[in-house]
Amino acid sequence: MKYLYLALGLLAISPIYSQSILLKWEAVAPGVWKAVVGQPESIHLLGVAGINPKTQVLNKLGERNFPELQKSAVYEIFDHKVYLRFPLEEKEQLYGLGLNFKSVRQRGTVKTLHVDHYGGRDDGRTHAPVPFYVSDQGYGILINSARYLTVYAGTGVRKDSPNPPEEKDRNTRKDWDANPYSDAVEVLVPATGTEVFLFAGNTPLEVVQRYNLYTGGGVLPPLWGLGFTHRTPTLFTDKDVLNEVEEFEKKGYPLSFVGLEPGWQSHAYPNSFVWDQGRFPDPASFIKRLLEKNIRVNLWLNPYASTKSPVYKDLIPHAASHTVWVGVVPDFHVPTARELYKKLFNEQHLSVGVSGYKIDETDGYDTWLWPDVTRFPSGFSAEQIRQTYGLQIQKMTADWFRERNQRTYGLSRASNAGASALPYVIYNDYYNHRDFITALCNSSFIGVLWTPEARSSATSEEWLRRMQAVCLSPMAMLNAWADGTKPWSFPEVAEAVKEVMLLRMQLLPYLYTTFAQYHFEGKPPVRAMPLNDDGQFFEKDIRDQFFLGEYLLVAPFFAGERSRQVVLPKGKWYDFYTGALAGENQIIEVHQSTPGPIPLYVKEGGFIPMIPPQLFPPKKNESLPLIIRYYGTQPSQGNLYDDDGETFDYEKGQYSWSELKAKKDPNGQWRGTIATPSGKPFRYVDIQWEWMVK
Ligand code: GAL
Fold first, then answer.
1. Closest Cα to atom 4, ligand 1: which residue?
2. Using a 6 Å cutoff on CB, does residue 261 contact ligand 1?
3. Which one, of 42, 37, 131, 111, lies nearest residue 77 by Cα?
């Protein structure tokens, strides 16, 4: 008895640690491993995203050694939560962990990953709080859990750390640091189980490629999706929209698809989902008129059903306990809820020619979104549904279009892990230009797309700078819903804005090839600087420039700037406009005494296939002249992708990769050749080469 008391007493004073257990990894594809911890929940991010791993391409990418560091990754299950710990090397840098707006490097940060409208701090509350981080040591970790995860990305210091930071006296040591070195990433998963994935790669880019391939390969948008899109003001009528479209044409500004904002429907916030008879008496004819010019229509909505909606009554038993703006919140895990939406949306939208959606308000804000005490008929918690709602609607709507063998490309304000293959681009209301570019960089690590939309501006210079940047992004969009801004609203820059919008159209073959590389190879179309081909590490934390595809480097100017620094990676880089050598492996200073074109650089050996300026997107199989610009002093080889631009027939082999070659003939003249497989879609005729480097 005496001993028992003694033992109990010891237990009371010494904390009890459960034993950390090594994660048990199992290979699921070459260079991809999975570890199962405890009992994973039935709802998880990759499941809701409906991923379809591109196993063949992963096989082709080949095996990688298991990252040494990860041999010591451990977990515990305690207090109904999973505790995960992944080792960090002293000089290691981390990227990813959601769509951040202010920072690219994430080591030393704490985040609670939570789907929300971005609130101005990189604290984990964001539109795509993807629990995936990429290390510059050649691996990435994904926690496949639909929970609010807390990630300590190299902040905690354990007393048994094999390599603890030095203890310093703050009074005497100037180098005392409130955030001393930490040797681990630790993650708290508020559930008793989860899957963890590990992706390897020789470079951060290869890690991201494996992540994108495992989650289905990146989306290949329809060709029209890569043109220019304009969202018309709230409460516009069909005539207003047609007039606006006509003005674009008359003034010579290109347009690929128009977005209808609140007011196309009879009731918004919450939604009826049916056309307003007064403003849009005949939606089918309205859309037909636009389609004659090959302009598509995208519809804004939030998914919350109004009493005025035909789905309302039948939806009530399949909806959440709480409402949003008194609209009912469908539980899309219930098949009847999905069917109700599918039937109504097909009747009202898809069958009359609507080409896509902008799915709003699925991210937050907490004060008006359904709260976490909400109950859902499927039995999943409000937390789990919050983390996956945007993802689920993206997948559901994308499938409707797929059933019609029609590609779509739309907008969503909420997303999460596994979204690479989904045809949606994230946007928000935050509207800080510089931070919008940082978000563009960050989107590239986590398999999502982002648009730094242009909406309004205080000055003509700001307007130009915003329009330039958005034209070099995954979706070139003017969102005029509130301000009614037109591309030509600022006369001083109206021509310069037109120029960059037309450049966007000229670049379609390059952009389309870039997205095909996303789809077929997993390489993100926009790439932050750490995602360069060589895995080069830059001393500077770069947040204001990015790669667009294989060859282009984009360095936007911000309003008020007359000069900026551009970091040029290894290898020669040429000015896109002139072909002049800009530098190599160095930081250059770019000056513009008056606001000029957006600085663009092309890598040595780069092919930029372009078409002449177009006002409308090319039609299915429409033939087009091609101008291939070559930037280089050495022979090189590249690729050009094509297919019908609209359907999923490319999945049945209906596409072509043409091989581009540039080399000098015996007389020292540059010669270009293009080899296209016969019998495959290829729209280009009359091919010309431009040798940019003199
Ligand atoms: C916001 C959205 C805007 C615009 C607006 C329409 O929530 O972010 O882009 O669509 O709704 O009311």
1. 481
2. yes
3. 37
